[in-house]
Design goal:
It is a single chain. By secondary structure, this protein is an alpha+beta fold. It is built from 5 helices and 3 strands, in the order ααβααββα. The protein has a 3-stranded antiparallel β-sheet with strand order 1-2-3. The radius of gyration is 29 Å and the shape is elongated. The relative contact order is 0.09. The model has no long low-confidence stretch (mean pLDDT about 85).
Length: about 150
């Protein structure tokens, strides 16, 4: 069925599907943000201190993954829940470790790995299609030459 489609029609269909995908992603992103606008994440904290909720604080160490030892030994209680930790210093001078969401750079790195893999698989698929097309064209040319030789 796809062989009978014209090149313009296929390009139009692919473009339409691409635009539709982007539109769905935008709508879904907006929809999920508007459903939970005031959602507050309650992360576990170390040393049972909530000074960061009541006063100004400074992030000493950004959100980073916990080591395998910290997770396995449960030496830092905040690593049990999300496997990520963040160190804060409150205005009173108290240092608090709290659990946090995944860091953006880890998600970004996973995204680019996925994109690279998809690009590589697309390139390999394209090369396979080109090679197959050459083989089929060669077979067709040989068949035509044989038919012409038999008719003369």
């Amino acid at each position: 069925m796809i062989e009978s489609c014209a090149k313009k029609r296929m390009l139009l269909g692919i473009t339409f599907l691409g635009i539709l995908t982007v539109l769905v992603l935008i709508i879904e992103s907006h929809w999920t943000e508007s459903r939970n606008p005031g959602r507050k994440r309650n992360f576990p904290i170390e040393q049972n201190s909530t000074c960061w909720e009541k006063e100004e604080y400074k992030v000493v160490k950004d959100c980073e993954p916990c080591s395998a030892f910290e997770i396995a030994s449960q030496s830092i209680g905040v690593c049990i829940h999300t496997h990520f930790k963040e160190v804060l210093r409150c205005a009173s001078g108290e240092t608090v470790t709290r659990s946090c969401d995944r860091t953006a750079y880890i998600d970004e790195r996973a995204f680019w790995r996925f994109e690279g893999f998809m690009f590589l698989s697309a390139a390999i698929s394209t090369l396979c299609v080109i090679a197959r097309k050459k083989v089929l064209n060669k077979r067709m040319l040989q068949r035509v030459q044989r038919q012409l030789a038999n008719s003369v």
